[in-house]
Structures
1.
Amino acid sequence: MHLDVQQLSKVFTTRRGPLLVLDQVSLYINSGEFVCVLGASGSGKTTLLRIIAGLETATHGQVTVDGHAVSGPGSDRGLVFQTYTLYPWLTVQDNIEFGLKLQGMPKGERRDRVHHYLHIVGLGRYAQLFPHQLSGGMKQRVAIARALVTEPQVLLMDEPFGALDAQTKEMMHEFLLDLWRRTRTTILMITHDVEEAVFLAQRIYVLTSSPGRVKEEVAIQLPLERTYRCKRQLEFVQQRETILDLLREERLKAIA
């Protein structure tokens, strides 16, 4: 799987005239990579993800998956939002199974697939519970399982842990890294959290603010096996400070 974004621009029409949100953004993700797009508010990062997901159309440029142009939503791209977007009247199992039903998969095959992904996200014992009976972290694991169960080529995540408390977020970071290592799912995640991006990603695209352009592509020089302890290491701190400096430059430009 190869996701390619070429010279992507997006202009919104407003009462004050055209508003350029993204300006000639180019990036790529190879199969099995974990890549983060990082930017402050106003960098257009969520708009970028929505275009890649097929929920928005670009004004200029193109998104391709394995050479095929993206023209709308598709089963090749799974999507996880910051809010859990679970159906409250369905059990955990039925929420995860929902997309497979829409695809017309036979019942027996659906149940086998759902059982597999319930095990992967560690929720096998909670299959018959409803969303209101789950913690925030558990709800987000259901949302991730629901996105993965259709076995998309790339998982798109829009600040999926932004609504969680600090301790739960840290646990979810380790959970997601472990999930990625076991499944080798290609992941593109949007975030404004520098520490989160450095901890999770193999590469980070840092966007400028208003409009969003690729300011820098940063390769993260950390081992794939990461735990929260690596955040104390000099290499982690140096990488975090490098990216914070890039974002500080953008903030200084904004107030100049």
2.
Amino acid sequence: MAAESQTGGRGRRGRVWHSPTGENLSFSLLLRPAIAASAASPLTLLAGAALGQTLASLGFSPQLKWPNDVLLDAGDGLRKVAGILTEMASEGGRIRHIVLGVGVNVNNQTFPTDLAALATSLRLVRGTFLDRGVVLAAFINAFEPIYEDFVARGPAAGLAEWRRFALLGQPCWVERESTRVEGVAEDVDDSGALLIRSADGERFSVHSGQVNWPRPM
């Protein structure tokens, strides 16, 4: 399902997703993978891998920031151009359905004041108008084989593709047991958790929550 505009679009942690009428690409896929609910966590990263492939095929140089942001170099640093949100309904350990929501800033040229320094669009980066249908078709073509391989064989191939575009080796910090822990984002594991090496050499995993990345990147 694709929407011409969104009045209640949102991202992780209840954040608002800005989507002017007729300019951007906002769509959702309804998925019913025949896998255990506990195995579905990597799906957000796999959708990111497909978005990475999509934008690369259109001549961009995307970078993926764990867990669900797609970034482009806007000339003054990396800015967010797309985001992913997955929501799952399950029962007894079995998946009823997963809604995979994707928002891509395609043709908008202005942003609200609170987003102006953080976001960009494909048009602002390239300087020309892009056909939203072309972007959507490219994503579907990229996502389908990644998704089918995930359901049949697990996340390994899709996560390898995610790493190809991933923003790794960067400093970050997280709140852990009410303590700020600084480290370097090194990798992800098979569950999609981010692996961070702290300053004292400890390696720990982050499955959810807020990872803070200093700016500029």
